[in-house]
Design a protein that fits this description.
Elements: H1 20-31, E1 36-40, E2 64-68, E3 72-81, E4 94-101, E5 106-110, E6 127-136, E7 139-146
Antiparallel strand pairs: 1-2, 3-4, 3-6, 4-5, 6-7
Protein backbone atom coordinates (compact mmCIF):
# COMPACT_ATOMS: atom_id res chain seq x y z
CA UNK A 1 0.00 0.00 0.00
CA UNK A 2 1.52 3.27 -1.11
CA UNK A 3 1.33 6.37 1.06
CA UNK A 4 -0.22 9.52 -0.44
CA UNK A 5 2.31 12.36 -0.68
CA UNK A 6 1.34 15.65 0.98
CA UNK A 7 1.46 18.40 -1.66
CA UNK A 8 -0.34 21.14 0.32
CA UNK A 9 2.87 22.64 1.63
CA UNK A 10 6.57 22.94 0.81
CA UNK A 11 8.29 23.04 4.21
CA UNK A 12 7.94 19.95 6.40
CA UNK A 13 10.75 20.47 8.91
CA UNK A 14 10.67 21.69 12.47
CA UNK A 15 9.94 25.36 12.98
CA UNK A 16 13.27 27.14 13.32
CA UNK A 17 14.07 29.45 16.18
CA UNK A 18 15.23 32.51 14.26
CA UNK A 19 18.61 33.90 15.22
CA UNK A 20 17.46 37.48 15.72
CA UNK A 21 20.88 38.57 16.96
CA UNK A 22 22.72 37.68 13.74
CA UNK A 23 19.93 37.21 11.19
CA UNK A 24 17.00 39.54 11.99
CA UNK A 25 17.25 41.12 8.53
CA UNK A 26 17.04 37.69 6.86
CA UNK A 27 13.85 36.74 8.73
CA UNK A 28 12.29 40.20 8.27
CA UNK A 29 12.97 39.98 4.53
CA UNK A 30 11.48 36.49 4.37
CA UNK A 31 8.21 37.82 5.82
CA UNK A 32 8.07 40.14 2.80
CA UNK A 33 9.14 37.53 0.22
CA UNK A 34 12.58 39.16 -0.07
CA UNK A 35 15.92 37.41 0.20
CA UNK A 36 18.22 39.51 2.35
CA UNK A 37 21.88 38.53 2.46
CA UNK A 38 24.76 39.71 4.62
CA UNK A 39 27.54 41.50 2.75
CA UNK A 40 30.96 42.42 3.99
CA UNK A 41 31.48 46.17 3.68
CA UNK A 42 35.27 45.64 3.58
CA UNK A 43 35.74 42.96 0.89
CA UNK A 44 32.33 43.66 -0.73
CA UNK A 45 31.38 39.94 -0.83
CA UNK A 46 28.02 38.42 0.05
CA UNK A 47 27.88 35.31 2.21
CA UNK A 48 25.43 32.92 3.80
CA UNK A 49 24.72 31.77 6.58
CA UNK A 50 24.49 35.00 8.59
CA UNK A 51 27.25 35.68 11.13
CA UNK A 52 29.00 38.64 12.71
CA UNK A 53 32.40 38.14 11.03
CA UNK A 54 33.07 37.93 7.28
CA UNK A 55 33.99 34.31 6.49
CA UNK A 56 35.97 35.17 3.35
CA UNK A 57 39.62 34.17 3.35
CA UNK A 58 41.90 37.02 4.34
CA UNK A 59 39.08 39.34 5.40
CA UNK A 60 37.28 38.48 8.66
CA UNK A 61 35.91 42.01 8.98
CA UNK A 62 33.08 42.79 11.39
CA UNK A 63 31.77 45.53 9.07
CA UNK A 64 28.70 43.61 7.87
CA UNK A 65 25.72 45.18 6.09
CA UNK A 66 22.53 43.62 4.72
CA UNK A 67 21.43 43.93 1.10
CA UNK A 68 18.41 42.76 -0.83
CA UNK A 69 19.43 39.92 -3.12
CA UNK A 70 17.98 39.28 -6.57
CA UNK A 71 16.27 36.07 -5.45
CA UNK A 72 17.60 34.37 -8.59
CA UNK A 73 20.13 31.60 -9.01
CA UNK A 74 21.07 28.35 -10.69
CA UNK A 75 21.18 24.74 -9.57
CA UNK A 76 24.75 23.78 -8.64
CA UNK A 77 23.85 20.19 -7.77
CA UNK A 78 20.82 18.29 -6.47
CA UNK A 79 19.74 15.08 -4.76
CA UNK A 80 16.51 13.13 -4.55
CA UNK A 81 15.61 12.42 -0.92
CA UNK A 82 13.90 9.05 -0.45
CA UNK A 83 14.38 8.74 3.31
CA UNK A 84 13.59 11.51 5.77
CA UNK A 85 12.90 12.09 9.44
CA UNK A 86 10.34 14.09 11.34
CA UNK A 87 7.78 15.95 9.22
CA UNK A 88 9.83 15.48 6.05
CA UNK A 89 8.61 11.84 5.96
CA UNK A 90 5.36 13.25 4.50
CA UNK A 91 7.24 14.75 1.57
CA UNK A 92 9.39 11.87 0.30
CA UNK A 93 10.55 11.72 -2.35
CA UNK A 94 11.59 15.37 -2.68
CA UNK A 95 14.44 17.33 -4.24
CA UNK A 96 17.12 19.22 -2.34
CA UNK A 97 19.76 21.31 -4.06
CA UNK A 98 22.66 23.63 -3.64
CA UNK A 99 21.71 26.90 -5.32
CA UNK A 100 24.28 29.41 -6.54
CA UNK A 101 22.71 32.86 -6.26
CA UNK A 102 23.49 35.78 -8.55
CA UNK A 103 25.38 37.25 -5.58
CA UNK A 104 27.80 34.28 -5.63
CA UNK A 105 26.36 32.69 -2.48
CA UNK A 106 25.65 28.95 -2.29
CA UNK A 107 22.52 27.96 -0.36
CA UNK A 108 21.07 24.52 0.45
CA UNK A 109 17.32 24.26 0.00
CA UNK A 110 14.35 22.39 -1.41
CA UNK A 111 13.29 22.78 -5.03
CA UNK A 112 9.52 22.69 -4.71
CA UNK A 113 8.46 22.25 -8.33
CA UNK A 114 11.11 19.69 -9.35
CA UNK A 115 9.83 16.21 -10.17
CA UNK A 116 11.67 13.68 -7.97
CA UNK A 117 10.17 10.85 -10.02
CA UNK A 118 12.02 12.11 -13.13
CA UNK A 119 15.55 13.20 -12.18
CA UNK A 120 16.47 13.66 -15.86
CA UNK A 121 14.05 16.62 -15.92
CA UNK A 122 16.20 18.46 -13.34
CA UNK A 123 19.18 20.15 -14.96
CA UNK A 124 22.39 21.38 -13.36
CA UNK A 125 22.59 25.09 -14.21
CA UNK A 126 18.81 25.49 -14.47
CA UNK A 127 17.51 28.91 -13.44
CA UNK A 128 15.64 29.10 -10.15
CA UNK A 129 13.87 31.78 -8.10
CA UNK A 130 13.35 31.95 -4.37
CA UNK A 131 9.92 31.76 -2.74
CA UNK A 132 8.87 31.79 0.89
CA UNK A 133 6.27 29.72 2.72
CA UNK A 134 4.62 30.82 5.95
CA UNK A 135 5.12 28.11 8.56
CA UNK A 136 4.09 30.17 11.61
CA UNK A 137 2.87 33.72 12.18
CA UNK A 138 6.35 35.24 12.07
CA UNK A 139 8.32 32.45 10.35
CA UNK A 140 8.62 32.22 6.57
CA UNK A 141 10.92 29.53 5.16
CA UNK A 142 12.75 29.91 1.84
CA UNK A 143 12.56 27.40 -0.97
CA UNK A 144 13.36 27.56 -4.67
CA UNK A 145 11.45 26.87 -7.89
CA UNK A 146 12.76 26.15 -11.37
CA UNK A 147 11.77 28.80 -13.91
Amino acid sequence: MSKEKNTDKVYFGPTPDPDLLNAKEFWDGAKNNILMLPKCNSCKKFFFYPRIICPKKGCHSRDIIWKQASGKGTIYTFAIQHIATDGWKEAVPFVTAFIDTEEDVRMLSVIANANPEDPTSIKIGANVVIKFEKVEDEIFMPYWEIV
